[in-house]
C-alpha cells in the first residue's frame, strides 16, 4: 500500500482577469515501511510545529484584538491630531499616525474586522460548495458527476475579476455580496481536488465494506470519505483564505469595496499610505505588513495543519506486515464428520442462476445454471479452481457484481424475496442485516482512521436503531462473541494495531452486527497463516452452533471445506459439476474433476510424494468447449462427452453430478 503525501507548492495569482490558486507538485508516493518512521515524524514536527504554532497564535491574537478593539481601544480611531500627522512609532502611537494624526495600530485592528469577516464569509461559501459538490460528484459518478463537472467548467470559464466588478457595480461597496461571489467562482478549485480524492477513496475496500454493511451514502460520505479529505482540503482552504485577504484588500484599496465611510479597512489604509509615500514611507510598512503577515500566517498554518493531518492518517494507515502463509502442505487434516444438513425449508434457494458480463465483443456468460440450497444453520462450501465462477456466484447473490455484470437468468430466493430481482434499495436493506459478507482481506475492510469500537458501534446503530451508549456496549459484546480477549481494550484500538487474525475476527464481528441469518465468507482465511486460519475456522464453526447462522464459504481449500462445511458445491468453468455432503465427496467423488481436485489436495497427499496436479487450466468463458467443459482435461472423456451438453443428474440421496461416466469415477 502506498500512502500519498501531497507536497504543497502553491502559487496565488490575480492576473489575466482570473483569480487562481494553483497547487503544483505531484503526489509523492511514500512506501508504507517508510511511511511513519518516528524520527521523520518528529523531524517534521520540529520543522513545522513552531511556525504553525506562531502562525496560529498570531491569527488568534489578531482575530480577538480586531473583534474586540471597539470595546477596549484606549484611543478613538477617528480622533484626529493634525499636529502629529504622519508621526513615526512612539510610546503614544506604537505604529505611528496617519496623515490626519489618527492612531495606525487601532485603525489596523478595527480594519481587520472587515477583512476577517469577509474572509470567513468567502471561505464558508468556498468550502461548503467545493467539498459538498466534490464529494457528491466523486461518490455518485455518472450523470451527477457530469452535471457538476459541467457547472464547475462553466464557473472556471468565467473571468473572476470581471465578475467581481460586475457584482460591485450592482451592489456598490457591498463586501458580503462580493465575498459570496468570490467563494462561488473559486469553489471549482476545491471541488476538483475533493472529487479526485473521493473517487480514489470510494474504491478502497473499507469504503466498499461500509456500503455493503448497509450504511446510507450520506453516512458513508460523512464518516469514511470526509476524514480522508482533510489533507488536501486544509491546504486549499487556507490558500483560498489567503487569496480572499488579498482580493478584499485589493478591492478596498481601489475603493470598490468597504469604502472609508464604513470605517478603516486594510485596503483603504494601504491606499492612504500609497498616497503619502512621497512625504512618509513608514505608513506603508504597518499597513502593507499586516496584510503580508496575515497571508504568510495562513499559508504556514495551512501547511502545519496539513502535515499534522497527513501524519495522523499515515500513522493510522501504516499496517503491520502480516506473516506469510507457509507454502508447504498441511498434513494430518482429515474430513471431520460434520452434522448432516438441517432438515428445514431452505433459507436460500438458488435456481438456474446465470450471470453474464457485457464486454465490448458482446455479453459473455461467466456462470450458468447454478442451483443449490442452504438451510438455516447449514454451511455450504463452494469449491473449485481459480476462474471456476465461485466469487461471481457468491457476489451475484448480494447484488455486488461489477457494473458490467448482470444476472441473466434464474433466481435466488431468500426469506421469500428473489435477491436477483430486488431493486438496489431493498437489496441494501438485506445486505449487512439479513445477509453479511466476510472478505478475504479483513484489514482492507476497516477504516484506518477510526477505532475498532467506533466502527462497530456505527454499524450496530445502523442496523439496530439504538443509542450511542447501547451501540458501544453491543460493539464490545460482538468483539467478545468473536472470542477476542479483552474486548474493551480491542474496541479502543485502531485497525493498524490489530494482528491479521484479530482483524479477521473484527470483520466477522462487523458482519454479525446486523444479526444476519446468512454469512457469505469469500476465502476468509486465505490471507492468514495456518495457526490463525485454524482459529478463524473454529470460530466460524462455533458461531454456527451458538448463533445458528448459515454460512456460504467460498474456498479452493479442501482442508477448510472439511473443517467447517456440511455440503460442497464443486464448480468448474462456470457450472456446478458436483454437489454432495462433504463426507460423501471425500469418500467417493462422482465427477472426475472432484476426484482429481481431491487427489491434488496437499492436506491428504502422502508426505514425500510429488503432489498430483490436473494438467491444463480452467478455460476462460469465451473458450468453453462444447459438451462437457472438463472434457479436454478429463481422463474419462469419450467422444460422446463433446457432442452434447451434459445435464446435472441425481446420483444418490441428496447428491448430483454432471458426468455421464460417474459410475466409473466412483470405482477407479
Ligand atoms: N469483472 C469481470 N469482467 C469480466 N469477466 C469476469 C469478471 N469477473 C469474473 N469474470 C469471469 O468470470 C469467471 C469466474 O470468475 P470468478 O472470480 O468467479 O472465479 P473464482 O472461481 O472465484 O476464482 P478465484 O478463486 O480466483 O476468485 C472468470 O474466469 C472470468 O472470466
TrEMBL record:
Region (Disordered): 315-345
NCBIfam families hit by this protein: oligo_HPY
Domain ABC transmembrane type-1: 112-302
Coiled coil feature spans: none
InterPro entries, per database record: AAA+_ATPase, ABC_Ni/Peptide_Import, ABC_transporter-like_ATP-bd, ABC_transporter-like_CS, MetI-like, MetI-like_sf, Oligopep_ABC_C, P-loop_NTPase
Protein name: Dipeptide/oligopeptide/nickel ABC transporter permease/ATP-binding protein
Membrane-crossing segments per the record: 50-73, 114-136, 148-170, 176-193, 229-251
Compositionally biased spans, kind Low complexity: 315-330
Key words, A-Z: ATP-binding, Cell membrane, Membrane, Nucleotide-binding, Transmembrane, Transmembrane helix, Transport
Family the entry assigns: Belongs to the binding-protein-dependent transport system permease family. Belongs to the ABC transporter superfamily.
Source organism (scientific name): Rugosimonospora acidiphila
Pfam families (UniProt xref): ABC_tran, BPD_transp_1, oligo_HPY
Location within or outside the cell: Cell membrane; Membrane
Primary residence: membrane
Domain ABC transporter: 350-598
Membrane topology, record value: Multi-pass membrane protein; Peripheral membrane protein
Amino acid at each position: 500500500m502506498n500512502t500519498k503525501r501531497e507536497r504543497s507548492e502553491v502559487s496565488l495569482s490575480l492576473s489575466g482577469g482570473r483569480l487562481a490558486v494553483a497547487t503544483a507538485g505531484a503526489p509523492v508516493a511514500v512506501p508504507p515501511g517508510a511511511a511513519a518512521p518516528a524520527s521523520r515524524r518528529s523531524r517534521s514536527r520540529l520543522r513545522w510545529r513552531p511556525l504553525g504554532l506562531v502562525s496560529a497564535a498570531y491569527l488568534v491574537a489578531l482575530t480577538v484584538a480586531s473583534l474586540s478593539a471597539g470595546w477596549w481601544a484606549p484611543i478613538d480611531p477617528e480622533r484626529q491630531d493634525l499636529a502629529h500627522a504622519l508621526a513615526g512609532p512612539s510610546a503614544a502611537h506604537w505604529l505611528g499616525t496617519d496623515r490626519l494624526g489618527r492612531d495606525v495600530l487601532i485603525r489596523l485592528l478595527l480594519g481587520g474586522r472587515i477583512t476577517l469577516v469577509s474572509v470567513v464569509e468567502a471561505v464558508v461559501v468556498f468550502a461548503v460548495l467545493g467539498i459538498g459538490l466534490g464529494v457528491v460528484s466523486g461518490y455518485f459518478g455518472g450523470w451527477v458527476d457530469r452535471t457538476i463537472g459541467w457547472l464547475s467548467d462553466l464557473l472556471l470559464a468565467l473571468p473572476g475579476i470581471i465578475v467581481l466588478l460586475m457584482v460591485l457595480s450592482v451592489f456598490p461597496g457591498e463586501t458580503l455580496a462580493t465575498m459570496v461571489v468570490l467563494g462561488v467562482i473559486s469553489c471549482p478549485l476545491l471541488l476538483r481536488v475533493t472529487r479526485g480524492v473521493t473517487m480514489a477513496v470510494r474504491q478502497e475496500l473499507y469504503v466498499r465494506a461500509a456500503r455493503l454493511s448497509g450504511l446510507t451514502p450520506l453516512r458513508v460520505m460523512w464518516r469514511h470519505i470526509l476524514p480522508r479529505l482533510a489533507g488536501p482540503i486544509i491546504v486549499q482552504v487556507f490558500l483560498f483564505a489567503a487569496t480572499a485577504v488579498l482580493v478584499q484588500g485589493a478591492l478596498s484599496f481601489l475603493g470598490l469595496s468597504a469604502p472609508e465611510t464604513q470605517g478603516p479597512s486594510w485596503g483603504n489604509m494601504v491606499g492612504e499610505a500609497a498616497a503619502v509615500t512621497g512625504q512618509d514611507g513608514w505608513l506603508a510598512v504597518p499597513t502593507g505588513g499586516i496584510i503580508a503577515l496575515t497571508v504568510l500566517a495562513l499559508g504556514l498554518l495551512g501547511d502545519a495543519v496539513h502535515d499534522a493531518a497527513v501524519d495522523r492518517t499515515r500513522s493510522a494507515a501504516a499496517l503491520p506486515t502480516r506473516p506469510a502463509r507457509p507454502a508447504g502442505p498441511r498434513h494430518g487434516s482429515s474430513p471431520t464428520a460434520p452434522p448432516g444438513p438441517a432438515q428445514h425449508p431452505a433459507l436460500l434457494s438458488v435456481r438456474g442462476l446465470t450471470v453474464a458480463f457485457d464486454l465490448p465483443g458482446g455479453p459473455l456468460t461467466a456462470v450458468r445454471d447454478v442451483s443449490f440450497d442452504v438451510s438455516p444453520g447449514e454451511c455450504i462450501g463452494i469449491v473449485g479452481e481459480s476462474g471456476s465462477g465461485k466469487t461471481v456466484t457468491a457476489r451475484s447473490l448480494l447484488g455486488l457484481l461489477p457494473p458490467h455484470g448482470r444476472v441473466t437468468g434464474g433466481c435466488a430466493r431468500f426469506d421469500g424475496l428473489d435477491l436477483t430481482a430486488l431493486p438496489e434499495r431493498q437489496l441494501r436493506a438485506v445486505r449487512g442485516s439479513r445477509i453479511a459478507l466476510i472478505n478475504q482481506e479483513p484489514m482492507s475492510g476497516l477504516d484506518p482512521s477510526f477505532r475498532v469500537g467506533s466502527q462497530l458501534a456505527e454499524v450496530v446503530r445502523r442496523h439496530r436503531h439504538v443509542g450511542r451508549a447501547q451501540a458501544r456496549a453491543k460493539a464490545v459484546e460482538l468483539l467478545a462473541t468473536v472470542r477476542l480477549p479483552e474486548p474493551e481494550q480491542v474496541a479502543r484500538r485502531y485497525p493498524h494495531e490489530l494482528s491479521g487474525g484479530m482483524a479477521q475476527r473484527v470483520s466477522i464481528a462487523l458482519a454479525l452486527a446486523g444479526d444476519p441469518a446468512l454469512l457469505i465468507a469469500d476465502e476468509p482465511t486465505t490471507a492468514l497463516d495456518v495457526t490463525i486460519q485454524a482459529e478463524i475456522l473454529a470460530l466460524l464453526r462455533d458461531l454456527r452452533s451458538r448463533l445458528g447462522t448459515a454460512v456460504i464459504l467460498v474456498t479452493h481449500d479442501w482442508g477448510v471445506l472439511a473443517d467447517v462445511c456440511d455440503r460442497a458445491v464443486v464448480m468448474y468453468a462456470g457450472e456446478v459439476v458436483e454437489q454432495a455432503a462433504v463426507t460423501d465427496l471425500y469418500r467417493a467423488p462422482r465427477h472426475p474433476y472432484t476426484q482429481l481436485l481431491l487427489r491434488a489436495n496437499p492436506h491428504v497427499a502422502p508426505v514425500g510424494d510429488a503432489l498430483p496436479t490436473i494438467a491444463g487450466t480452467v478455460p476462460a468463458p469465451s473458450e468453453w468447449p462444447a459438451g462437457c467443459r472438463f472434457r479436454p482435461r478429463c481422463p474419462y472423456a469419450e467422444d460422446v462427452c463433446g457432442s452434447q451438453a451434459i445435464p446435472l443428474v441425481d446420483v444418490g440421496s441428496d447428491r448430483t453430478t454432471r458426468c455421464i461416466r460417474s459410475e466409473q469415477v466412483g470405482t477407479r
